[in-house]
Amino acid sequence: MPMQPWFTDAKLGIFIHYGIYAVDGVTESWAFYHGQVSHEQYMKQLEGFTAAHYDPDVWAELFARTGARYAVLTARHHDGVALWDTAQDGLSVARHTPAGRDLVTGYVEAMREHGLKVGLYYSHSDWNHPDYASVIHPDMPPEEATAHPYVAPRDGQERPQAWERYLAYRTAQVRELVTAHHPDLLWFDGEWERSEEQWRLDELADAILSVSPDTVLNGRMLSQGDYATPEQGLPVTTPPGPWELCLTINDSWGFQHHDHNHKSVRLLVRYFTETIAMGGNLLLDVGPREDGTIPDEQVARLEGLGDWIARHADAVYDTRAGLPAGHHYGPSTLSADRRTLYLVCLDAPTEGVSVRGVRNTVKRVTVLGTGTALAHRTVGGLGAVPGVLWIDAPHGSDVDRHATVLALELEGELDLYRGFGRD
Ligand code: GLC
């Protein structure tokens, strides 16, 4: 399927890891997998999950203010606890927690009401389902299986019928979500525990797309995926196709009360601009408390990022990846008509900003947001090799405290020199 244009135009999405792990503030699902807490203690969190102040309208309003164009909610993480009232035999907040209701429908409606595209995260794996640990990944030596009791059979004996039941359960759950909500995006995870054949991802993709043909699938659907999902680290080389960087706002996906190591707004602007400059989207994660409220520290980060984006919207929306590395010391984006180049200055320039390899005449350079024109000149150049464009540094109120953006209006569409300096 060709990539949905809304996705590559979106630039920013908000990831929401919301689940019973927020009750004690432990790592989502992994806490019992790694034995940080006992399985019993982890599951006891079911009793404390209230969603007492859950108001997806407040979320949607905040995300829209942040400048996000989509959101992705953990409908079901590796712990198997569905956030909706699933008709399948698994766990759900509707039937197994005091929250006692479906939380997905309200989320979907609120996002759409605020103009955001709807994403749902679903983990292929379910470490609590009795039929899950029934087969072994073909690359896993059978003797290792015993070390992964939530993933593979303890005795190393495969149970193919149980696996069939698990796949039926998985597909039925996904079908429930797709039929009820026609999500714009399904964000799968946990694919590493089985092979593509074991997961039967072709059948799963068919089940989704036959009902909702426009749903975008992330790369954790392996060969059925539409885009790549680097996690927690920016790519160094621009990935070949559509992609999205998922990133925690502090060091945790879900709410962990002791984690105050939040990225600063400036750092988030950095990640965001570097991402869109390479043609990707940023999927920035928040972790609501068990009652459904997003911690103030996280709200403040989203608002700060949103303020910066609002002031620099022209450099964000309706743009494409900018200059490849080597032309400008910082991220850049290019307007859809390829006639305006936006240079992001991550640190305040003191003397000047230089750009190499632009063959076009530069008609005007202005500071985005204030409109101040900056003097500029091209120095040197010979034959086919363009000189270096030097732009005077902005000063005073033209310097943004997070990142200043310069808009270069070009004569014609961007024409780049990519050679070695002498033809
Ligand atoms: C990892 C983790 C998971 C988290 C996800 C987000 O795959 O397993 O806990 O939800 O990253 O990308």
- By CATH, the superfamily of the largest domain comes out as Glycosidases
Question: So, CATH architecture of the largest domain?
Answer: Alpha-Beta Barrel
- Provide the residue-averaged pLDDT: 96
Number of domains: 2
| Largest pleated sheet | 7 strands, parallel
Structural class: alpha/beta
The number of distinct helices, counting runs of at least 4 residues, comes to 14
Strand coverage percent: 15-25%
N-to-C CA distance = 41 Å
Number of strands: 17
Which CATH first-tier class of the largest domain would you pick? Alpha Beta
CATH topology of the largest domain: TIM Barrel
Order of strands across the widest beta sheet?
A: 7-6-5-2-1-9-8
Present as ligands are: alpha-D-glucopyranose
Structural overview:
It is built from 14 helices and 17 strands. Helix 5 (56-66) packs parallel to helix 7 (104-113), helix 5 packs parallel to helix 13 (296-311) and helix 12 packs across helix 13 (296-311). It is 28% helix and 20% strand. It is of the alpha/beta class and 423 residues long. The radius of gyration is 24 Å and the shape is elongated. The mean pLDDT is 96. The relative contact order is 0.12. The chain has helices at residues 5-10, 21-24, 30-33, 39-44, 56-66, 93-96, 104-113, 142-145, 160-181, 196-199, 201-209, 265-277, 296-311, 313-316; strands at 12-16, 70-76, 81-82, 91-92, 117-123, 185-189, 216-217, 244-248, 281-286, 319-321, 332-335, 340-345, 352-355, 362-367, 376-382, 385-392, 404-410. It folds into 2 domains: 5-311, TIM Barrel (Alpha-Beta Barrel); 321-410, Sandwich (Immunoglobulin-like). The protein starts with a helix and ends in a 13-residue tail after the last strand. Strands 7-6-5-2-1-9-8 form a 7-stranded parallel β-sheet. Alpha-D-glucopyranose (GLC) binds next to loops.
